[in-house]
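Question thread 4412

I'm putting together a teaching handout and wanted feedback from people who do this every day. The idea is simple: show students a protein as raw sequence, then show them the structure tokens that encode its fold, then repeat with a second protein so they can compare. Below is the first pair exactly as I plan to print it.
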Amino acid sequence: MTIEQGMAEIDEQAALWFSRRSSGRLSAAEEAEFAAWLAHSEQHAQAYADMQLLWDDCDQLARPDVPAAEPAPVTPLAPRRRAPTAWLALAATVLLAVGGLLGYQWRQLPQLELSASAGQHELRQLQLADGSELTLNLGSTVQVRYYRDRREVSLIAGEAYFSVAPDAERPFRVDAGAGRVEVVGTRFTVRRSLATLAVAVEQGHVAVQPGRDGLALQQLQPGDSLEIDYQQGALRRSQVPTAEVGSWRDGLLVFRDRPLGELAQELSRYRGRPVQLDGAGLAARRLSGSLDIHQPERFVQALPQLLPLELIEQADGVLLLRERK
């Protein structure tokens, strides 16, 4: 049984108990049975409280004014009596249907919802109510939504470091374009660019769903790094020292064997101006080194010493990296 199915069953039980107790005809033994059900778990108590709140809210809804009308002719009919048990069964059925539906909708409403961005020249840290922490890299944006049964973060752009508080009842999920990262409690980074997704794990266990046909679910442990190239339909796994995961939080980005095409996208974000490549072979060239994220121009100026390329500053602010001939 899934968590969703389990909560739906609890909601139905809460609706049935509410219907039976509203009739005022429970015996002492039934009241004891209800008390035992209520004390069985926090979920039972919360579901019954939700049902009471829902009933109170419905009772306070404004009734529409109905204009007076001439009474229609009435033909007397022989009185019919509905058996009390049939009426209670009907009421319970209605409450079960409404309670199940509204209980499901209740769980779909976020308990916490926020959007946050880091400026082009600042890192930003978010402290969440469950004890989890997010650090946004320069120029990064996230949307956070916490529900009763899950925690979700959408990485809209850039990169974020996640320190997730354990909660087996509410898994933590990061959506980054087509890819998805799922954890319970761990520390890791997720970086999203135009055509790639990268995940590196400092602590704990991370499951990465690439979201691309032909690419299987990846299970990552501490020190594992994964890069997904959506243009090529390929992924690449490697090992990194755990101390280097999220190193940019201290202002120094440490990278190993990174393709220049991907690095150029990060340089664009750190500079606040585009960095483009001119030359088919440049994007595939790989680099290792470090970058002061607050002074990216120093790294840019050193590139011609590391690779056979030249820098061309264009009038529109675009920095062109061209293969040296």
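The second pair follows. I'd like the answer to focus on this one:
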Amino acid sequence: MSTLKKLGYPENTKLLIIHADDAGLSHAENQATIQALQEGSVNSTSIMVPCPWFGEMADFAAKHEQYDYGIHLTLTCEWKHYKWGPILSKTEVPGLLDENGYLHNNRENFKNNTSSEEIKKELQAQIERALQSGLKPTHLDSHMYTLGLKPEFIKIYKELGAAYKLPILLSKQLIEFLGLDPNLYISNDDFCVDNVFLGNYADFEKGQLEAYYERVLDNLPTGLNIVLIHTAFDVPEMQGIAIDHPNFGAEWRQIDYDFFTSQKCQSKIENNGIKLITWREIRDILYPEG
């Protein structure tokens, strides 16, 4: 059964989630994401529980339940100087740690050093911490899509979604990008996003990131689509975090914020017959019993 049929929409429907990753990363990230939810076309975000600014975003979410909040399951820490560790004690999940006691800074080190048991324990702790904060999550997704790196990681991802009755961001495109054959790990019964759109560094380098987003909206296919963005203000705090990391860095995140809070973006959504849908709506369809 197609994704649209599962959601009860006609086959010619263009559904779109405009999703801002990495809430909780920093104050600049939180403030831009909040404003993008309140004033822009962004209609979904997800929060990184282990990050230093989780509390600020969780507090906002608890007081503004009308917005769409996922848990951005976090098992890596990619920045040069800005670091965090796991929720659990370091003796409980030693394989998740680098030589300095922080989460690994790239997918390969994470993939080669951790165990499924540690991953599941840590992710359950992150979800429970989010629930204890008052967050009412709409879905689960994966930071840097680390849960798509191995079949056993995908299994954990699915198990967590089923256990907490939350849809997960499952995507054949993202699994394929990480080197696995998605057809071996995704069945017809799994709920999948049909198309994932993510800005690329070549367009950013040429100053054409906004033009890329315009093309996506002008040519959006039918089915369930998601545009993954990262909204933050290009201020000293975010510049310091993203030093030596222009890919999804401070300037990039400001561009994402500027475009997806613009009238141009809103007009393109309307003129192209796009229907915005949230993970909250999807959750309530897939898990009507709550």
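Top answer:
Good format. For the second protein you could add a caption like this: The chain has a mean pLDDT of 96. The chain has one domain: 3-286.
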